[in-house]
Amino acid sequence: MSSQAFQIISTLRYDPALPNVVAQRGVDAYPDPLNTPYYLLPYHQDRLRNAARYFNWDNALRFLEQDLAHFARHLDKFIPDKGRPWRLRIVVDRNGDCRVDVNPATRSELENFVVPFIISPASTPWRVYVDTAPTTPSGLTTHKTTAREDYMAARTRLGISSPQDTADVLLVNPNGEVMEGSITTPYFRRRREHTEQNEPEWITPPLSSGGCAGTSRRYALAQGFCREQTITTADLIDGEICLLSNGVRGFILGRVVLNKSPL
Question: pTM (2 decimals)?
Answer without folding.
Answer: 0.94
